[in-house]
Amino acid sequence: MKLPVTRYYGSKRRVVEEIWFALKKSRIEFDTFLDLFGGTGIVSYYMLAQGKQVCYNDLFAFNCEIAKALLATPKNTLSESEALALLNREPMVFYDNIIERNYQGIYYLDEENRQIDTIVQNILRLSNEKKACAYYLLFQSCLIKRPFNLFHRKNLNLRINHSESSFGNYVTWEKSFEQLFKQFVNELNTYQFEQLKNVKISNLDALDCDTSYDLVYIDPPYFNNGTPISYHSRYHFLEGLMYYNDIEQKINRKKANLEIGLNCESEFEDKASFSQNLRKLFARYHKSVLVLSYTTNGYPSIDDLVCIMKEFKDHVKVLSLGKKPFALNRSNEGREEVLVIGK
Ligand SMILES: C[S@@+](CC[C@H](N)C(=O)[O-])C[C@H]1O[C@@H](n2cnc3c(N)ncnc32)[C@H](O)[C@@H]1O
Asked: Does residue 326 have a pLDDT over 60?
């Protein structure tokens, strides 16, 4: 199946097909599917395309907006001319410059910061359906223009001091918002479904979702041996853009990357309490088939995860999805993606 490109830490785009075949091979029957840690929405997208009834969930509002655009908005809701109109300031309208004022030299060039201010405020005046599409274009553009597609470091200098020999995708970073909006509106209109499918988008903590699904797919943040970097730290800037007028009060000025302290939940981001929180999660959704995505070099170990799941399920098995390098972390060649399935 052709799938949109994702630029997100932990995206399952490369393994979603294997996940589908592993479920089929294990003879797991399901009609309703809860994607608890939905991220890019790519797993939900695949399941919808296979005719399943899906609930996508993620803690971040910006991810839910991306999911709304891709999964729950009909093809061609936003045209190229409407997309490009978002780049210009309307006459007689007051525009604030929150990003330009606060983020000079952090993530983008001055001119780009000003454009982000313009785009967000234009989006706020759109209807709900068009809004989701417009945010999709903005977030994909912001991600592709960032070194490593991340916001946990103030590293605009990688772009400014770029030389031929240095690392990175300079040509992509330098693409204008106009070029990128044309590219992404085209991409969105290609992948959106012609006819809307049976999908619900929810923006809740994973421990608060509805428990009535046949299968619950669990793809939480994972820890390896390095210093943990939270999803919040990686993507706070995009989450901040969802609450534009609150950004200034929420900036942590002690951090060099001016992290925006919105929707910062430590539950599944804290190594010490991770196993305990997984227990709570398995307990809550124990009536459903549980399918946990994990990696062989993660913490806790796969053996420990199996033991935890066995506290709630009689039949637990581990399936390998093969040696797939992790999206955005290709150095990790030896790791294997696995599913821990509890029935
Ligand atoms: C490994 S990623 C999921 C990737 C996703 N399966 C995909 O293919 O794009 C983990 C996701 O969990 C979300 N998350 C972190 N803590 C959460 C929580 N307490 N409740 C719900 N979502 C959470 C993060 O925003 C992130 O998108």
From this structure: no
Spacing, Cα 71 to ligand 1 middle (Å): 17
Q: Within a domain: residue 59?
A: no
Q: Is 68 within a domain? A: no
Q: From residue 324, how far is each of 11, 12, 17, 22, 320 by CA, in Å?
A: 12, 10, 12, 15, 10
Ligand 1 atom closest to residue 205's alpha carbon, by position in its atom list: 20
Question: Model's pTM, two decimal places?
Answer: 0.95
What's the pLDDT score for residue 16?
97
| Rounded CA separation 49/278 (Å) | 29
Ligand 1 pocket: which residues have CB below 6 Å? Answer: 8, 10-12, 37-40, 42-43, 58-60, 63, 205-206, 219-221, 231, 265, 267-268
Do 136 and 163 share a domain, yes or no?
Answer: yes
Residue bearing the CA closest to ligand 1, atom 17: 59
Q: Residue 276: which CATH number?
A: 3.40.50.150
Angle, alpha carbons 204-267-290 (nearest 5°) = 70
Provide the domain count of the chain: 2
- CA of 91 from ligand 1 middle (Å) equals 40
> Which residue range forms the structural domain that includes residue 216?
1-53+198-227+266-301+311-343
Q: Which one-letter amino acid corresponds to residue 253?
A: R
| Helix/strand/coil for 321 | strand
CA of 2 to the centre of ligand 1 (A): 23
Same domain, 160 and 277: no
18 Cβ neighbours under 8 A, 6+ residues apart: 321, 322, 324, 337
- pLDDT score of 165: 59
Quote the pLDDT of residue 159: 85
SS3 state at 248: helix
Q: Would you say residue 306 lies in a domain?
A: no
Tokens representing 166?
A: 């240095």
Q: What is the pLDDT of residues 244-260, one digit of tens each?
A: 999 999 999 999 999 99
